[in-house]
């Protein structure tokens, strides 16, 4: 792949820059005959869209998707589905002042080194806007997973040093940060609003729980299910780490503590996070990712420009002080794509 | 891929079970004209081989590799190189007692659920022995990277709760756990020997530092350099998490702290771990992985067998009480494969 | 791939049905910094578009392309380029009468067997309209090849039993059938118009000549340059065979006749068609493809419907009596994609 | 791929030079639980091996395969199967005289241009010996296809200008050229022996018939079943063209003649060769390939050496005067790999 395609049997290819004409995705390999419409996809888009609340960017993209192919009389045809979103709230002139500068934390320098030139309008291809296309594709995968009884749920567990103490699934979509603890959520929101007022940003942790995956899904060796989930998550720009089950705590555990023993009802613990040897155990798949603080801040920073000159920079613009709430649906989307793809690979292997 | 192939332009495919006749690898896409011999590869094999010391398994595999193709008159031909290792110290009968039982922490259950049957001799394909093939392939990639001035160095930073306090690169290959702190190393070895005497095991953390990578290597979006390194690392059975740069600490950092500011000499910090937007910044690429405690322990554990009956199990056999020292060359090998592959992809993109 | 993606390093993914909202393509892996605009691509689109002349379908699609991404200030950015065409002259109601019938020569039966349902409007995804997206992608590849001094030229050599006797490159774009012999072209046009009046169609042969390819391009074994060109050509619906150089005549030749001997000026013959062992020799790459007669004819034919009932069918509608003239730019486009992709693979291999 | 890997879900990767230590293949994605043994694979190897008769090369390779992995207690495990053949009758010194010369018809020049160096011993990687690995892999695919009721049969239909007039399947394995007409076979053998005495060689045509493939197998657009079969066949060094069904004769046919009409019993003709729109129709898949005359001849030829000097060359050695009889099992093997792979892709798509 040249970097914009993901998946083996359910294959998605995205395109589009943040301030170009449109972003979109082609999804190939969709099981035919599935009932689907734009409204179903739009539900997920609306969870990711900017301008949802006081803790997200005020940039307003209506993110209204259109399905251009692969659907006929309300059913998937099995041929590629193109889903497109026009970019509507573009203000490229806002980037004129900084077009020659490398914004700290942004991919400005790296894109220029890689390509020799770059689209400086709002991060171009490296923008979080690219993830809108992933959410659209993930919605289609989610629909396919529903048939299998698989559900994917992500939620914020830590923001700016504040951690969730309880897990209340019903609370997640009812608070602005999509935290699983409504009390912690209130502190998180307060913290974010305070940082936002200072022009600063903060990071956090999001956990994802995938339920209903049968035992035996995942490939051995290089395409382990956890390896592919790790790739999927780290492919989201703001994510800098991932851990499964007991995760980094395993470093201080004994084998006799970490091993998940079994009785006839199943596993007694889930330190493995639902995956052993790269293949699902039948227990919930559980992983956590760390989300870095948003790079765009209006605090004064030191940098250089493309001519090697030292400069001071204040990244104005409309940005999320904490990306956790909007990254939750992106994480779910990528998880849906990985799981559905591996179900399809398993079908190809067994093929009975 | 069906799971046993890795890489786009430098492509490796492994085969072999731990107690079958042989394990091996085909490496395709090797730059032609490179001077290489078996001895160069063997150096890396010897770092991974069992039976090195008191803290590794006493299982003795000489791990003598043979290069069967792709080499002519001391130089690579550009055609596929097959490297093979015969399995010499097989004792499959050792597994007779447990062949119907699912060992806790092992892939016994998951392989059986996936394939409907499994090679129960020493974990079969899920065995750590498969990584010998990766180390062989990684040695070839390392040779290619040397021409570019890229070096890859991994080392243990934590074992059984004991952490390194200093970073002394020269110490790494001089202590049995490959730790970067020779004082901590002594405590680690003591801890491992004690656990080994009790039939238990422990986990740890390994850090990897890749130096000399030019800015601009890595693909955007799905094939980000960190995403591919994450996949590569999580594809190693014992690894349950990865973090880049500041990693999980980023959750509690502000944007103004996490952003790596620049002056004309380069980045002032390296919280990004050398990768932004999936592309190398030119700074060292730094990541840490968590290594779970070895699953094979001789402590009594509760499990079930393939007939659903509850059983007690003691995994006898010859196992590593802590896999950190032997996983270090595997991590380096996978890192070498990823970096060389992405250099080749960049050459294809620019192609001037 | 799930079937709609082509290429390794220059990778194209198409979408769209003939009577849906749009068709389009994402091209990934384009060398950055290339000057390109919509007008350059449009030139090739206009060579393929319907309604060009008396020997093509009167269906009118303006085939005006739009580039939605991957271009910035007149240069390619190296990120995916999406090129889209809206479908403008759709008359899906024209297909109401035949929606339950399997048209002879069409993919109606096969799509229904594969997917369990099908978009019956104008062949859906199996329509020749899908090739418009290929021509757009091929134009980008052609631009990349121009830098290398590679040119790709296809032309009709046989139509309805009439064969070209001369090769006059300047004549090709000056006659309606894109034949390389202007005298034969006149007979071909006459033949096509006569068949068209009868509601019948005819086949033909198109030759393609690729000049300027350096020796050494192509992969060994499975991805031989001729193998990939063969796949590319047979992936065009109407093409049923391909031969390189001496082609099928080689069956009756001796080794001493077929072998291309050399002197210091190069090859004395080109029976190999410019490729030996899957790798370019430096001579022109020459192949011929056979184009089947257009399946849509208004002659009465016997068929069955989806209920297994025998039916008679007359495929009304607006169709090409001979697809040769419009398939020429499609063949060139696919050839451009293959050659540019293999140049990029070679760059990845050597990478110096 | 870097050229030595084939297939999506049933994936084969070959290695090995003709005069190196061994050739072999890794087959990944094999359905687990399949009964298989070395003897089953050996049957196909013996059909391809040299030294079978007066019309094949006297080079003697016993071609005894060994299965090194992926098999346990007589059944496939679903993990990669490595099959290896040692090279036993190597006489590399036979090539000393010609190591600096480019043999006409051989890949000497092209490999040197591509790689900058080459293994000159018996064509190295470009040798027909590489196809032994394909035959081994094809045998495994054939076993998988047997479960589906699919059979693959190839046979010589033309050699040195002599054509089969009858189709007698039982005759094929009973004559030395594997022709479907035992009378023509006698003339063919005579012709080959005569050419062989003169040090010359001849080409031919092989037809392949695949029976029992259900309607609906194959991918749309780029991975059409005929496109993939074409790639598979052209990836065999000696093959220079392919045609399906009516093939090149379609150039002179009318649509009303070429279209395969239907009644309730099925298709009335099979001009499409069993594939429409890239997807199987349920009729036999029929294609023909042209096999070029063996390049190695002992007739005096003109060439140049690697220093650009004009030379005369007589390729001594042990070669097949006509490769048709030994290419028949290679063609079958590649066809088996393509068909089984596409069945697996279809299973992934539908996945019910």
UniProtKB/TrEMBL annotation, chains A, B, C, D:
Name of the molecule in the record:
Chorismate synthase
Q: Which reaction does it catalyse?
A: 5-O-(1-carboxyvinyl)-3-phosphoshikimate = chorismate + phosphate
Indicate which residues the UniProt annotation says bind NADP(+).
48
What does the entry comment about cofactor binding? Reduced FMN (FMNH(2)).
Family per similarity comment: Belongs to the chorismate synthase family.
Q: What does the record give as EC number?
A: 4.2.3.5
InterPro entries in alphabetical order: Chorismate_synth (IPR000453), Chorismate_synth_AroC_sf (IPR035904), Chorismate_synthase_CS (IPR020541)
Residue span of the signal peptide, if any? none
Q: What does this protein do?
A: This reaction introduces a second double bond into the aromatic ring system.
Query: Which residues participate in FMN binding?
Result: 125-127, 277, 292-296, 318
């Amino acid at each position: 792949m040249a970097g914009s395609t993901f998946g083996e049997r359910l294959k998605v290819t995205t395109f589009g820059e943040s301030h170009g004409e449109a972003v979109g995705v082609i999804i190939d390999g969709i099981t035919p005959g599935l009932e689907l419409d734009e409204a179903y996809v739009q539900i997920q888009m609306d969870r990711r869209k900017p301008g949802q609340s006081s803790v997200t960017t005020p940039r307003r993209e209506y993110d209204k998707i259109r399905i251009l192919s692969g659907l006929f009389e309300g059913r998937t045809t099995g041929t590629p589905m193109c889903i497109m979103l026009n970019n509507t709230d573009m203000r490229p002139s806002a980037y004129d002042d900084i077009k020659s500068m490398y914004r700290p934390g942004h991919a400005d320098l790296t894109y220029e080194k890689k390509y020799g030139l770059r689209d400086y309008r709002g991060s171009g291809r490296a923008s979080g806007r690219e993830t809108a296309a992933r959410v659209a594709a993930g919605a289609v995968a989610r629909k396919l997973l529903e048939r299998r009884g698989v559900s994917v749920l992500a939620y914020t567990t830590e923001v700016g040093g504040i951690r969730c103490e309880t897990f209340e699934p019903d609370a997640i979509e009812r608070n602005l940060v999509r935290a699983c603890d409504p009390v912690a959520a209130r502190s998180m929101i307060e913290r974010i609003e305070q940082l936002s007022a200072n022009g600063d940003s903060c990071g956090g942790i999001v956990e994802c729980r995938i339920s209903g995956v049968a035992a035996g899904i995942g490939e051995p060796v290089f395409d382990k299910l956890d390896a592919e989930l790790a790739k999927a998550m780290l492919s989201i720009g703001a994510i800098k780490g991932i851990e499964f089950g007991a995760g980094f705590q395993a470093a201080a555990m004994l084998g006799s503590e970490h091993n998940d023993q079994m009785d006839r009802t199943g596993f007694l613990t889930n330190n493995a996070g639902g995956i052993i040897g790269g293949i699902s155990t039948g227990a919930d798949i559980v992983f956590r990712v760390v989300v870095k603080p948003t790079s765009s801040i209006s605090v004064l920073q030191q940098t250089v420009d493309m001519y090697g000159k030292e400069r001071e920079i204040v990244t104005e613009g409309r940005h999320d002080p904490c990306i956790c709430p909007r990254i939750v649906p992106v994480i779910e989307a990528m998880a849906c794509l990985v799981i559905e793809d591996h179900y399809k690979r398993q079908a190809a292997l067994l093929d009975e």
